[in-house]
Automatic annotation (TrEMBL):
Stretches for region LID: 112-122
UniProt cross-references to Gene3D superfamilies, sorted A to Z: P-loop containing nucleotide triphosphate hydrolases (3.40.50.300)
Chain positions recorded as ATP binding sites: G17, G19, K20, T21, S22, R113
GO molecular function, one term: AMP kinase activity
Job of this protein: Broad-specificity nucleoside monophosphate (NMP) kinase that catalyzes the reversible transfer of the terminal phosphate group between nucleoside triphosphates and monophosphates. Has also ATPase activity. Involved in the late cytoplasmic maturation steps of the 40S ribosomal particles, specifically 18S rRNA maturation. While NMP activity is not required for ribosome maturation, ATPase activity is. Associates transiently with small ribosomal subunit protein uS11. ATP hydrolysis breaks the interaction with uS11.
One Gene Ontology cellular component annotation held by this UniProt entry: cytoplasm
Name of this chain's protein: Adenylate kinase isoenzyme 6 homolog
Pfam families: AAA_18
Catalytic activity: ATP + H2O = ADP + phosphate + H(+); AMP + ATP = 2 ADP
Presence of keyword Zinc: no
EC number: 2.7.4.3
Primary location recorded for the protein, binned into one broad class: cytoplasm
Region (NMPbind): 37-60
Length: 176
């Protein structure tokens, strides 16, 4: 018998500024999982095809990223933090968390991050039109998706508590 993962893999996704990195790092600590900040990994390991001067971000090389992560994902116990989700293998994840933030709150967070013009606008629209939520619903089974509000610090601590409890009760599926 081949042993599958003994700890779950969780994807934390959502529009930039919704709180993925803050939530994922708190959860990683609380639930003893490894936080993988995809944006940073892509920069660090050059898993990109250069810089997009219009979108002001790296052009992700999805194949390089997935190859880089495959072994770690097989062994389980990861929290993957990224603002996209459709190109990851579906089999990687036991839970997909979509964080959502009200528009005026997100606006302030992105302004604080120094976003402006087209970049600010397109991220706000991404959230208004629930682009990431739809992407998640098109890519993963509905019963593994949790959509969670991330407006306040209280939301964040409620989310971390709920997710920590989910991790604690997760049972590895039997392999045939
Ligand atoms: P992301 O990784 O999704 O881009 P971050 O975790 O970097 O988002 O959060 C962006 C900013 O918003 C940070 O300054 C963070 O402290 C703040 N923030 C995120 N989530 C919340 C929340 N639920 N309540 C209050 N502030 C938050
Ligand atoms: Mn982040």
């Amino acid at each position: 018998m081949v042993l599958g993962r003994q700890k779950p893999n969780v994807l934390v996704t959502g529009t930039p500024g919704t709180g993925k990195t803050s939530t994922a790092s708190l959860l990683a600590e609380a639930a003893h999982l490894r936080h993988i900040n995809v944006g940073e990994l892509v920069k660090e390991k050059h898993l990109h095809d250069g810089w997009d001067p219009d979108l002001l971000c790296h052009i992700l090389n999805e194949d390089l990223l997935c190859d880089e992560l495959e072994e770690r994902m097989k062994s389980g116990g990861n929290i993957v933090d990224y603002h996209g989700c459709e190109f990851f293998p579906e089999r990687w994840f036991d839970l997909v968390v979509v964080l959502q933030t009200d528009n005026s709150i997100l606006y302030d967070r992105l302004m604080n991050r120094g976003y402006s013009g087209q970049k600010l606008q397109s991220n706000l629209e991404c959230e208004i039109f629930q682009v990431i939520r739809e992407e998640a619903e098109e890519s993963y089974r509905r019963d593994i998706i949790k959509v969670m509000p991330s407006n306040t610090i209280e939301d964040m601590s409620n989310n971390v508590e709920a997710l920590k409890a989910w991790v604690a009760s997760w049972v590895a599926p039997l392999e045939s």
